[in-house]
Amino acid sequence: MKKISRKNLFDITEKIALITGSSRGLGLILARGLGEAGATLILNGRNRETLNRAVTQLNQEGLTAYGYAFNVTNRKEIQDAIEHINLGLLKNAGLSFKKEVIVTGGCARSSLVRKILADILDMRVLYLKGDSRADYADAWLAGKGVGVFSDYRLMKKKLKILDTYEPDPELHGYYCNIFETVYKELYPCLKNLFQ
Question: Keyword Oxidoreductase, does the record have it (predicted)?
């Protein structure tokens, strides 16, 4: 008879578990159990120091845990936390975002716009010769989807790059500061328009 272990009885590998009140006590015990069953853990608590200790402890035990301090009875804090958790998970999971973006036509005809775009995105910007149309890209995506093309990089080989713009880390930091300042001022005023 096959031995039943907790791992194969309750396998949640590749799942994400958000456990509220998990910086200590029963919440931390529950988080550990879910982590041992394979989940990536999102710990929550209001005390950042206690939360950081719990995250460190679970990570040292070989589990994957991240901590977000917010009050689960405060709707605004919940919304803000969820907005940050999604991007944070992608980055913390090691999913890399492309370090380059390809642009053509429209505003991208301006070299100033291309340079600003490189600095804001902190990515290399490649400017294409001519204007590519959406149907050209759609054909490549469809070909990849049905298996005609094995890799998107085949498409890149067909493109003629006219110019390349490298990001300036100092300007990237400058733009991030501006964005954060403006975002913090505008978001509370505009968020109800998008709900």
Answer: yes
Of 119, 188, 125, nearest in space to 161 by CA = 125
How many angstroms separate the Cα of 72 from the Cα of each of 2, 21, 179? 42, 9, 27
Q: What is the pLDDT of residue 107?
A: 83
pTM: 0.47
Burial classification of residue 161, based on how many CB atoms lie within 10 Å of its CB (0-12 exposed, 13-18 middle, 19 or more buried): exposed
DSSP state of 108: G
Q: Which domains, from first to last, does the chain contain?
A: 6-92 (3.40.50.720), 100-194 (3.30.420.40)
What 3-state class would DSSP assign to 139? helix
Task: Scan for tokens 């936390």, then name that residue.
Answer: 81
- The letter for the amino acid at 158 is K
Instruction: pLDDT band for 58, please (50, 70, 90 cuts).
Output: very high
Amino acid sitting at position 30: L
- Exposure b/e, 163-191, CB count within 10 A at least 16 = b: eebebeeeebeebeeeeeeeeeeeeeeee
